[in-house]
Amino acid sequence: MSEHALEQLFDEFAQAYLRGEGPDVSAYLARAGDERDDLGDLIDRFLQAVPAQPPTEEEIVLMQARLEQEPPLLLLRIRRKLSREAVVDVLLRTLGLDPAKREKVDGYYHQLETGLLDPEPVDRTVWEALSDLLRANVRALAGLRSEPPPALHARYFCADAPARFESTAYKIDELRSEPGPEREEPDEVDVLFCGLNGT
Amino acid sequence: MHDARDAEDQRLLEAGEYSALVESYYGVIIRRCQVKVRYGDPVDVAHEVVVRLMSELERGRRYRVPLRVVVHQVTTWKIKEHLAGGQVSEVELEDWMREASTEGTRPVEELMAGQGFEAMLAGLTELEQKVIRLAYDDDLGFGEIAMRLGKESNAVHQIHFRALAKLRKERG
Asked: What is the pLDDT of residues B93-135, one digit of tens each?
């Protein structure tokens, strides 16, 4: 990347930040390629020099979630003064699900909200319904931890992140491999929340 | 450029609305962490900054420098601490806070007013000059300076303190 291109990228970030658009630092650094450290230094100095812009709703929720050690999605719903029942009502209606599946949807939403369900396979339509209702980037919040790792200074503490979803993955595998006539076929709710498609 | 923001910070500080105050800086804190933290989770480092700031404010700590200066300094230290694997001494933060709250600016910057860096250092011993250069030219914390010079952090703090005292005496 040429020096001019780097400056352009930095200007783009700076203008977006000053317009209060909450630019994604990671995306800009990725675009800088090998020059990411240079861009990072420019951005860091810039952020220290200009008045701080108000945080986004997601950032506020994340900060409070960490302080209170509550899952971000749960905290967001509480901030919106919504009951879990109300959220499930909206999910059933928006996703066109059979009301008889209410208990199952409620169970999945509870797992999602409390960080027990891997957000990765959850269907886009679920995120859209939740984002409309909760007025925030719910997908971004769902994958974030509510508590700091036990050893904050350990260099590679993120390496254990996938383990958080082991229990869910285990359940999915169990559901898929369960033999005999009692095996419950994945239904539309499983597909939406776990990406199960019967394969 | 910062006047309105500083005034709002002061209002929140006086009202004891510490959470709202720190919250208002969270966007910039987390972005600075995202820029600098190359391994691990930047959110964890940002959380450390928040906890530290909340703890300082709730203990009634007050500064003569604007809060934004404190926020950025704590963020810089926490990032350095993370990058150093937690090897940067917590003591240095206390030192800086004490200086910041009594001097109103970084002491060497105040003492340098009207003269060059090299001219200012002329009356110091070689070791004192090294410490001042590392602290203010290279912007290192006492923990890092101690590692560079093969000394204890407390010894570096004393050398720094002695050097500042000499400089103040020279400035009259």
From this structure: 555 555 554 443 455 555 555 566 677 788 888 898 888 888 8
ipTM given for this complex: 0.70
Give me the mean pLDDT over the A168-183 stretch: 50
At A28 the pLDDT is 95
Q: Are B40 and A156 in contact (CB under 8 A)?
A: yes
From the centroid of its chain, how far is CA A11?
Answer: 28
Which residues of chain B lie closer than 8 angstroms to A145, CB-CB?
41, 43
How many helices (DSSP H) and strands (DSSP E) are in chain B?
10, 0
Closest to B68 measured CA to CA, from B158, B1, B149, B165:
B1
Strands (E), A36-191: none
Given a cut of 50, whether residue A158 has pLDDT beyond it is: no
Looking at residue A151, the DSSP 8-state letter turns out to be S
Mean pLDDT of A72-95: 94
Q: A22 CA to chain B: closest CA distance, Å? A: 8
- What is d(CA A49, CA B55) in angstroms, rounded to the nearest whole number? 25
Q: What residue in B sits closest to A148 (Cα-Cα)?
A: B44
The answer for residues whose C-beta is within 8 angstroms of residue B72's C-beta and 6 or more apart is A48, B32
> Cβ separation of B24 and A66 shorter than 8 Å?
no
Amino acid identity, position B68: R
Instruction: Say which residues have a Cβ less than 8 Å from residue A40's Cβ, sequence separation at least 6.
Output: A29, A32, B35, B36
Rg (chain B; Cα; Å): 17
CB contact under 8 A, B32 and A50: no
Confidence band of B46 (pLDDT split at 50, 70, 90): very high
Report the candidate in A45, A14, A66 with the shortest Cα–Cα distance to residue B44. A66
Test B85 with A48 for CB contact under 8 angstroms: no
What is the token pair recorded at B123? 């009356």
Residue of B nearest to A144 (CA): B43
* Interface contact flag, B81 A153, Cβ < 8 Å: yes
